Amino acid sequence: MNQTDIPPVLVTGATGRIGRFVIDRLLDAGVPVRALTHRSEAAGTLPANVEVFTGDLTVPESLDPALKGAGAVFLVWTAPSPTTAAVVGRLAAHVRRIVFLSSPHRTPHPFFQQPNPMAALHAGIEELIAATGVESAIIRPGMLASNSLAWWAPAIRAGDVVRWPYAAAATAPVDDRDVAAVAARTLYQDGHVGGDYVLTGPESLTQAAQVSVIGDALCRRIVCEEMTPDEFRSLSRGTAPDSVIDMLLAAWSAAVGQPAYVTTTVADILGTAPRTLRQWATDHATAFTEAPQPHRS
After folding, report:
1. What is the per-residue burial (b if ≥16 Cβ within 10 Å, else e) of 21-43?
2. Helix (H, G, I), strand (E, B) or coil at 290
3. Which of 93, 257, 262, 285 is most buried, judging by how many CB atoms fall within 10 Å of its CB?
4. CB 199, CB 41: distance < 8 Å
5. Is this prediction's pTM over 0.85?
6. 4: Cβ–Cβ under 8 A, 6 or more apart, which residues?
7. How high is the pLDDT of residue 40?
């Protein structure tokens, strides 16, 4: 693919977990990339051949320089909701395709059907995108494997016991890299307009089993001990909004006793099997043994 033949793709959330991998996959495919960041100093964390723009989703007109001449946008919503309509309208006025990182709130599985403010926000943005008539695709990752870094890595670095609520709740963790690879395909490849893709890992695993798999990757025995929901609320206070904590607890509670929702979408689109949690944990083993580096955005 000749970079001079195709317009650049603008990636929002460019230094986030998914956005950064989307950039890599686009570059691998020979697609020119623009990255939107809040601060210009974030450019140092991105590949040299990425064109970096500063902009803010809460200031829609700040996006115009990055959008001029772009062909597609990968939209990761990381802002308060009042500017959603203005931003989506601005995107649609400039580009022919929007790929939106959403959530599986339409999925008929109890895990995804709990009251969730973020899901409501996502649903509203999806409606706005559809109303513009622009080409679009929706990417709906389930539980991300990388969530375990925030949830369990501190305890694993400190010892061999992870205390967690609803250890018997099953999910199908999906590798961030697989999510990004699918998103990248929908941004530059034909055949995905109107796509609505729920992405999961290949296997249903209880949370206790996931902790054990991570332990295996570290060549250690890590035990998952049950924590009460009230303990979890107390320990999580200040780390996330109460509504998010309540949503997680409700979702895990609803998932106990039944297999996780598993799709074949990653394999269907990429032609390769999705990475297992064991593969992800092996590739990220040092994150469970070394202190995390300060996050840049």
Report:
1. bbbbbbbebebbbbbbbbeeebb
2. coil
3. 262
4. no
5. yes
6. none
7. 76
| Per-residue pLDDT, 293 | 63
Strand segments (E) across the chain: 9-11, 33-37, 51-54, 72-75, 97-101, 135-141, 161-164, 170-171, 196-199, 205-206, 223-226
Question: Taking CA 123 as the corner, what is the angle to CA 170 and CA 80, rounded to the nearest 5 degrees?
Answer: 100
H/E segment holding residue 232: helix 229-236
Q: How many DSSP H helices and E strands does the chain contain?
A: 12, 11
Which token pair is 257?
């006793």
pLDDT of residue 114: 85
- Give the total residue count for the chain: 297
pLDDT of residue 148: 96
In the numeric block, which tokens belong to residue 219? Answer: 């060549």
**Structural domains in the chain plus CATH codes:** 3-142+175-200+262-270 (3.40.50.720)
Cα 26 from Cα 9, distance rounded (Å): 8
Whether the CB-CB separation of 30 and 4 falls below 8 Å is answered with no
**In the numeric block, which tokens belong to residue 230?**
């009230």
| Cα(152)–Cα(146) distance, integer angstroms | 10
- Averaged over successive runs of 10 residues, the pLDDT of the chain (297 residues) comes to 74 94 97 92 85 95 97 94 96 98 92 87 96 97 96 96 98 98 96 95 98 97 96 92 91 95 97 97 94 56
Give the angle subtended at the CA of 81 by the CAs of 243 and 198, to the nearest 5°.
70
Yes or no: say if 187 and 99 are a contact pair by the CB < 8 Å rule: yes
Rounded-to-10 torsion of CA 126, 129, 130, 133: -170
Pick the closest to residue 101 from 79, 122, 86, 130 (CA basis): 122
| Residue 111, beta-bridge partner list | none
**How many other CB atoms are found less than 10 A from the CB of residue 158?**
9
Give the pair of three-digit tokens for residue 87. Answer: 């931003």
105 CB-contact burial (10 Å; exposed 0-12 / middle 13-18 / buried 19+): middle
Alpha-carbon distance of 49 to 26, in angstroms, equals 12
